Every structure is written in C-alpha cells, then in structure tokens.
Amino acid sequence: MLNNTEKYQNHNIRLGLYGEYFDIESLKKKAELFQNTRILHINSVKRGGGVAAILSHIVPLFNDIGILNHWWVPQIPESNFFQITKRQHNMLQGIDDGILSDTEQSIYWETQKHVAGMVKKHIGEYDFVVIHDTQYLGIVKFLEKRKPKILYRCHIDTSAPNPFIYNFFMPVLRSCDATIYHLPEFVLKGSPDPFFLLPSVDPFDPKNNISAVSRGFIRETIKNLGLDPSRAILLQVGRFDPAKGFEDVCDVFRQLKLEFSDLQLLLTGSGAADDPEFYTYIEVIKNKVRGINDVVVKELPFDVLKLNAVQQAATIVYALSKKEGFGLVVSEASIKKKPVIVTDVGGLPEQVLQGKTGFIVKNVDEAVEKSRFLLSNRQVREAMGERGRKYILSRFITPVHVENYLKIFYHVMER
Question: Which helix (DSSP H) or strand (DSSP E) does residue 131 occupy?
Fold first, then answer.
C-alpha cells in the first residue's frame, strides 16, 4: 500500500482528546459506516504549507476511529517540475496570465505518467483516493477503469482562473468522481459533483497548543530574532509569495511606526519543496524594509515551537492576502487568543467574526485604522482573542473536518 509519511503524522492525535470541544460519540457512530473503507491521500510535500499540516492531523484521527487512511507523497526525479506546478498554481488563481510552453507541458505529463505507474500497483487496495491540488491531478489521465472513487481536493482560490490552465486541467478534472472546494465561488465550471469543505487546525498540535511553550521560551525566541519581547509586535506568518500581501503589511507598519515609535514588525514563515519562488520573494521583502528600524524578515524552517512562540508573542496578527484559499494562519493565531486583521479574500473572512474576533479590511488604510484602534485598546485586544479562540474551536478543528469528510464520502459512495 502507499504510505510514506508516518514520520510526519501526529500520532498523539486521539478522538478522546476533543471531548471538551466536540461531540465525539456522534463521530464514532458515523465512523461505524466506514469500518471497512480504505482511503488514500496524495499531495506534493510531507511538510510545509497548509495541506501537509492538515493531513498530518486528519490522517491519524481517521485511523484512530477505525477508518484506514494512508498519506502518500510521490518521490519524483529531479527536474523543474515544481517550478511548472507553481506556475499552474498561479494560473489557477488568475495571477499568471501566460501559457505553459510545450516543454513545460511535456515535463508535467511525463511526471504524471511516471507517478501513475506507481499508483496503479496499489490503487485497487483503496475505496477512495483524494488528490490534493493539481501537482498530481494529471495521474487520472493514466489510470484505467478503476475501483476507487477519485476525488479532487482544491485548496486554493480558483474563482478567476487563467483560461489556458482551465482548459488544460478540465479533461482530467471531469474524469474524477467528485470535487471538493473550500467555497462555492471557487468551483471551476464543469467540475463533477462539487462539495464544500473548510479545513482545520488542531489545538493539540505543538504548533497550536498554548501550553506547549513556556513564557521563557517565547521571550528567548523573540530575543533571538532580534526583537524586544516587552514591546508590541505586528506579525504576518506564511509562505513568502506575492499573493500573500507581505508588502501591504510593510506599508501598514510604516504608517503606524510614525505614531507608535516602539512598534516592531516580524514577517516570517517556512518554504516547501513545491514552492521554488519562496526564496526569491523573501529577498524582495527584505529589500522593501531595508533601512527601516525594528523590522525582522526571516524564515522559520519547520520549527513548530518557534512558530507557536512568535504567534503568542504577537500583539496583532495579519493576513493581508490578495489571493487566498483559506489561510490557516488566521485560525492558528486566533486559537492562541490573538486579534487578527485580514483582507476580504478567499476563506479568510470565514475565520473572523467582524469586530468581535478581529477585523476584515479592504485595503491598507483600513488595516492601519483598525490596527491603531487595537494598539490603543489592550482590553479590546484581549477580549477579541478570547472570543477568537472559542470561535475557532467550535468550527475549524480536526474532528469537525473529519466528520465533514465522512459526509462527503457517504454521498459519493451512495451515488
């Protein structure tokens, strides 16, 4: 069978942990319908980014409730494959309006054929195969009539795709048995049997567990980054990507710094094997803030405890994306009782109760206004943080995600 990610799964995940936040008996009953069901998840990386983070939680929880789940990441020959799939990603989001060259298309399809050859040996062992995003969606083209139901799980905003890439993927997309999107507006026209599913964070993951790091560790982490833990910190965490809005956060900070002289800014995140633009764009941001005091732009490579620490140290957490699938960093911040300021794109507004857990803004000026209000009102910040944690725990945690997956699997199975 296909399962090469054991090392990256959180094997401490157990259904019994969530009794305080979730009706675990209800999930146990639903799981009884799937006791002989076997599910395979395929994605492009074992760590880095939201998809890997989600799979590291839902796969072990599925297994804990008696539903066999495997998570497989293909090992492919060295090539510029991920440069091509990153372009496809940008095209699907409407950021890149070009086309793929004949060489790029050839590399993509040759890789799909290679991966499909590995999948064919085991595909009959599964009832459902969930292909996450489009890096390996093309394998469907090379799979013969098959036993498992194949579902395409989209994690990005595809509301306004480049027409070239839409036509490129539509033939294989139509060969899937069903499709899953975050939101109705993301559905690609012609997608078979679309369902909607919001992702999740996990309160017991070391990245999100408030008690996983001490106050001393938080202070040392901030000091080691060159910042002062006793002063206010504005934070944005994520992949360094033009769509994530890091430049707008810089502009927000630049304006606020005129009024709040002690203010600090931290921009951080980690790269991933399927994102070759990360290191190029982080240099763009470093150049933008060069010469500005109290700003740190730094990669935190897969250190979940340090990421936990910087989010707990933050005064306000931002997600000023221009395009976004969901943006789990917002839920990660809220679960740590931090007020958030986000743009009205993708799934970001789903995670915020306007004026209660944070603010949804349209532009830099609105972000500055709301930041000024929060920086001047500590009690409001703390109240928002408390409400934010309760809201995320009620809607966006692992067992809710697994339960909603089971509803989809049931409907697909019945059809």
Answer: strand 128-132
- Collapsing DSSP to helix, strand or coil, 188 comes out as coil
pLDDT given for residue 351 in this prediction: 98
User: pLDDT tens for residues 84-121?
Assistant: 999 999 999 999 999 999 999 999 999 999 999 999 99
Residues 361/248, Cβ–Cβ less than 8 Å: no
pLDDT tens digits, residue range 334-382?
Answer: 999 999 999 999 999 999 999 999 999 999 999 999 999 999 999 999 9
Distance (Å) of CA 48 to CA 172, 180, 214, 339, 395: 26, 21, 24, 24, 23
Question: Residue 304 CB: number of other CB atoms within 10 A?
Answer: 18
Handedness of CA 82, 86, 87, 92 (dihedral sign): positive
Task: Specify the amino acid at residue 156.
Answer: I
Distance CA 290, CA 297 (A): 10
Please answer whether residues 225 and 323 qualify as being in contact, where contact means their C-beta atoms are separated by less than 8 angstroms: no
- Asked whether the beta carbons of 351 and 392 are under 8 A apart, the reply is yes
Amino acid at 358: G
270: which 2 tokens?
């980690």
